[in-house]
Amino acid sequence: MKATARAHTNIALIKYWGKRNESLILPANSNLSVTLDGFSTETTVHFQEHLTEDSFILNEQSAEEDARTKIAVFLDKVRALSGKEIYAQVQSVNHVPTAAGFASSASGLAALAAASTKAIGLSLEDRELSRLARQGSGSASRSIYGGFVEWQMGEREDGLDSYAIQVADASHWNIRIAAVVLSKTVKKVSSREGMRRTIDTSPFYAGWLEQTAKDLQEIKQAIADKDFEKMGSVTEANCLRMHATTLGANPPFTYWQDNTMRVMQTVQGLREQGIPAFFTIDAGPNVKVLYLPEDEDKIKTRLNAVEGVEDIIISKPGSGISYM
Q1: What is the reported pTM?
Q2: What are the Mvd1 C-terminal domain coordinates in residue numbering (predicted)?
Q3: Over pLDDT 90: what percentage of the chain?
């Protein structure tokens, strides 16, 4: 009763920001991401008869109480599906900065969903696995798949129609995504708290939802057509509108730092010089830059010159769940 799975993280091009149901993690809007081959989590789950509780080792260290509780709650769902009351030892290695806006929870919970269901004897289709992973972390629903992925918000109250589907596989389009590492520190406002505060208090949120539905249709067409300028401009505008909702919250907050702004301005400067590049930022200070492979040297040179840049990790569209 043991299995190991690897999942890659993803970056939302059309953002998921806000829930219509917190307990089931049902999004307020459909959203779209690209899976990144440069960031991943490997998780081994071993169910054992003699255990009296679940344990969780993260990066070779015993995880904190909150993380252990989250893992146990998720494994309760797996146990309920299988009808087996048996506890597990969980070991994960995160090749992602944790809680810094690089979606470590996406790859982490997707890998956990895959490894735990296989270890306990379940055989789930990708759609079922996506629905399960969603209940641990919303963005994990998208990391089940490679390439470009849409998480459909669904309409049902029970969440059975809220899962991710693949829009285009990893081989569809040879683009690049540079993850610009500015800070590896844990963010002060978690994504969950940030979403809640924004929905409850930001007067900009209703407009965000309305426009995002339009953005989603535009970007799906751009991906189908391999229209990089269109995809990039929609991605960047959607990102900026999302972050504007946090500035309208009460109390206001932002995930950006001074260096975040410097990278954004550098990317805009590259476009002014005729180099197509676009940025997007999740709930954290770090920036992801979309560009075409032929511009890689110019992009890296300019980004490395920005004050505060600690590292640049290059990805291309990555694969979905794999078993080891």
Answers
A1: 0.94
A2: 180-304
A3: 91
Which residues, at least 6 apart from 247, have a Cβ–Cβ distance to it below 8 Å? 253, 254
Q: How far is CA 61 from the centre of its chain?
A: 24
Q: Which amino acid would we find at residue 261? A: M
Q: 281: closest CA among 153, 187, 149?
A: 187
Is the Cα dihedral 242, 243, 245, 251 positive or negative?
A: positive
Q: Are 281 and 5 in contact (CB under 8 A)?
A: no
Three-class secondary structure assignment of 50-80: CCCCCEEEECCEECCHHHHHHHHHHHHHHHH
Q: Is residue 97 predicted with pLDDT exceeding 90? A: no
Question: What phi and psi, each to the nearest 5 degrees, are found at residue 45?
Answer: -120, 125
For the segment 131-174, what is each residue's pLDDT rounded down to a tens digit? 999 999 999 999 999 999 999 999 999 999 999 999 999 999 99
Residue 252 — pLDDT band, cuts 50, 70, 90?
Answer: very high
The values of phi and psi at residue 161, to 5°, are -105, 20
What is the reported pLDDT for 190? 87
Q: Each residue of 294-303: b (16+ CB within 10 Å) or e?
A: ebeeebeebb
Which CATH number describes the domain made up of 1-324? 3.30.230.10
Residue 81 CA: distances (Å) to CA of 84, 173, 283, 318: 8, 37, 32, 29
Residue 185 pLDDT greater than 90, yes or no? no
Q: Nearest-CA neighbor of 94 among 55, 132, 61, 141?
A: 61
Q: Indicate the domain borders of the chain.
A: 1-324
Distance CA 30, CA 105 (A): 19
Find the largest Cα–Cα distance for the chain.
Answer: 64
Note the Cα 161 to chain centre separation in Å.
20
- β-pairing, 322-323 vs 2-14, is antiparallel
Judge whether residue 300 has pLDDT over 80: yes
Beta bridge partners of 5: 43, 323
* Structural contact between residues 229 and 219, judged by C-beta atoms closer than 8 angstroms: no
Write down the residue that tokens 């009296």 correspond to: 52
**What's the pLDDT at 188?**
87
